[in-house]
Amino acid sequence: MDLLDYLKAKIQNSNYPVVITGPRITFPSDTLPFKANYFGHSLNDILSLDFLQSNYEIFIKTCILIGEWNKKKPNYIHESIKELDIPIITENIDMLHTIAGSKKVIQLLGNIQDFVCTKCNFSIPFFQSKKYINIHKPFYCPECHSPIKLNIVLKGEAIRNFHHALNEIYKADTLLILGSDLDRWPINKLNQLANKQGSKIIIINEFKV
Ligand SMILES: [Zn+2]
């Protein structure tokens, strides 16, 4: 049975199925980039407010590298979820659900499509940022010279759209959790709530590459 048929079977008797997705749907193998080494640090460590403040040069160089994920295309998992046509709550920052054509996507951690200033309103799409960016020297806001970052939620910053996500979970009688470890507070509250209210929960973390 392929993934789409499997998921359809799981939600066929559900009135309001919802899916939470995490990085393992974009990177189905074990070689998750979050565990990879960037300039001697893990991505997990770098994408934090503390790291931005203490080591901006490595921070911004890493942002430039992961901005290249904007070239990624949706895979069979994104396509299957799109076919289900159900609300999506995602930890992913790559926009691949939207690119696959999914309509209702709640992004908890922002996305990598733009660079934004940490102080003023300056923002620029990643692919137009090359005129400012040179990986050999740190890049600051051209308006106010403050540090910039991809438009993502760093560790130490508040999760976005959490109340929208909660609203969906309240309505969900079935919750699919695909490719997420749900190890980040308060995202882990979502499946705890679903569990508490008796929603059916289906977790899939292994995908063929
Ligand atoms: Zn600025």
UniProtKB/TrEMBL annotation:
InterPro entries per the UniProt record, alphabetical: DHS-like_NAD/FAD-binding_dom (IPR029035), NAD-dep_sirtuin_deacylases (IPR050134), Sirtuin (IPR003000), Sirtuin_cat_small_dom_sf (IPR026591), Ssirtuin_cat_dom (IPR026590)
PROSITE patterns noted in UniProt: SIRTUIN
Keywords, sorted A to Z: Metal-binding, NAD, Transferase, Zinc
Boundaries of every Deacetylase sirtuin-type domain copy: 1-209
Pfam families, sorted: SIR2 (PF02146)
Superkingdom of source: Bacteria
Keyword NAD (UniProt): yes
Cross-referenced SUPFAM superfamilies: DHS-like NAD/FAD-binding domain
Residues at which Zn(2+) binds: 117, 120, 141, 144
E.C. no: 2.3.1.286
PANTHER family recorded: NAD-DEPENDENT PROTEIN DEACYLASE SIRTUIN-5, MITOCHONDRIAL-RELATED (PTHR11085:SF10)
Protein name as catalogued: protein acetyllysine N-acetyltransferase
Gene that this polypeptide is encoded by: cobB
